[in-house]
Amino acid sequence: MLSEKLKMAKGNNNNNKATNGKVMNSQHAKSEVNALPPQKSVFIAYILWLFGGLFGIHHLYLHRDRHAFLWWCSLGGYFGIGWIGEIFTIPSYVRDANEDPRFIEEFIKKLQTHKKPPYSGKRFLFEIMIGYLFGQLFHMAIPNHVIMEVDFNFLHWLIPLFVAIGVWTVGNIGREHGVLWHCLLAAFAAYPIRYFIYDETYTILITSLVAALVFDHASKEWLRTPPKRRGICERFFKFSTAMFIYFSLWGCFFYFNGTIPDENGNEVPIHEAFQNFLASAWWTDIKQALKDMYTYAQHHGWYEIWKELLESMDVDGERNAYKVLGLSATASQSEITTTYRKLCKTIHPDTVKDESQRAAAQQRFIEVQQAYEILSKIKSARIRKNKKVVNDDDIENDTIVL
Length: 402
Hints:
Elements: H1 2-9, H2 17-33, H3 42-52, H4 57-61, H5 65-79, H6 81-85, H7 90-98, H8 101-113, H9 121-141, H10 159-171, E1 176-177, H11 180-190, H12 200-219, E2 221-222, H13 232-257, E3 259-261, E4 267-269, H14 270-278, H15 281-300, H16 302-313, H17 318-325, H18 333-347, H19 355-401
Antiparallel strand pairs: 1-2, 3-4
Helix pairs in contact: 1-8, 5-13, 9-10, 9-12, 9-13, 10-11, 10-12, 11-12, 15-16, 17-19, 18-19
């Protein structure tokens, strides 16, 4: 067991046999409670990495939820850079998830060699990048103007909190972990530099750098016990909550600080454009149409609404086919055939002598052919359906007579 080997690595071999027996029993009980899930497959992990790696799907499969969340936020580790780099590390991730004996032996050697996790340039850089991403995102989400007579500039003092969360989240990936408050204090201590550096971008970057340095030197430790195997409901709740907060910040940014150009090229804030849209005649007409549809459905049923919706969408192309041939919806098959033949004679590309108009004539000729095929197919299907209904009625009548 991993916990037993870690105890040996720490040198705790001076206990008596009775104590060792108790420890082994307690560890055995813990291992039963924290039972391993079915073994993960390297092949499946690579397939998920290939087709969903930019969104961290393979990390979700391997129970690396923090890693998956960060990959989702940064689109594969800042637009695929980290995703590509994982092509050689996935087997190690799988061995970690499976608690493979080979991985455990390598991990114990690291514990014996290094008292705390050694410096990793890749992890340190990612701590800074994610800390900066979270801090910058919260900064962009703060409204730049007064809303409902409230000035939200005081929220800038929460930027260090999001920077620290970003650094701490990266630092707790895999078999390394640390507490939040170290990098949180460091971030709040470094953030007042904004009064000397008036560019908020550099302020957030320096805050992230300081928080990452403090976390690496004061907080980072080995995770000596196997990661807890949480249930699917708990994992889904935590992951969806984190994603909700993340996308809410993006929503606040677009709504309060985003702009769209109007017909004159002027930039209009999105929240003003949205309010103007709700007061527009077009939105009023849409609301009235939805209200009328709901009233109609209450009296006739939602199935009738669905039928009318399909008819208006013209999913089978019947309405457009009648329009192309210039016929009404009551035209018979003989009228459709006669009209089709006349059009073929008059619009055939071979009758057009002007080369510049021949392409348009060819397109028109194809449309007429397609319209005729659609209507002929629909008419034939209806005739077969009507014949079947008539035959069924005849059979029923004969049965009644007998």
